[in-house]
Design brief:
By secondary structure, the protein is largely without helices or strands. Helices cover about 15% and strands about 0% of the residues. It has one helix and no strands. The protein has one helix at about 85-95. The radius of gyration is 17 Å and the shape is elongated.
Length: about 100
C-alpha cells in the first residue's frame, strides 16, 4: 500500500499531504485531487464520504478541500479497454449479424 499518483502510479514519497499546486513528477497530473483522497467514493452522493466538504465537480483537478487526506492503496493501471463498451459492441454484432 502506497501513496501514489492516481494517473500513472508514481509513488509520493514526501511526508504529509501534497499542496494545491503539487504535481506528479512523472506525468504532471495534479496530486491534491479527489481521486487521491481517502473520502473519494464513486458510489455516494457528490462522490465524497466527507459530508462537510464542498462539492467538487472535476475530481481529477487540484482543489482546496480542507478534508483532503492522501489515500494509501495499491495502484492498478487504467485498462485500455472498457468492458461495458466491449459488451455493448458484442450485443450490436449479434443483433445486426456482423
Amino acid at each position: 500500500m502506497t501513496r501514489h499518483c492516481h494517473n500513472c502510479g508514481e509513488p509520493w514519497t514526501i511526508s504529509g499531504n501534497p499542496g494545491r499546486g503539487e504535481v506528479c513528477m512523472k506525468c504532471r497530473a495534479d496530486l491534491r485531487v479527489c481521486l487521491n483522497c481517502v473520502s473519494y467514493d464513486p458510489r455516494v452522493a457528490q462522490q465524497c464520504r466527507e459530508r462537510r466538504a464542498e462539492p467538487v465537480l472535476e475530481k481529477a483537478v487540484g482543489n482546496f478541500c480542507e478534508y483532503f487526506e492522501f489515500i494509501r492503496s495499491d495502484f492498478t493501471p487504467k485498462s485500455e479497454t472498457n468492458p461495458r463498451e466491449d459488451a455493448a459492441r458484442e450485443q450490436m454484432k449479434k443483433l445486426f449479424g456482423d
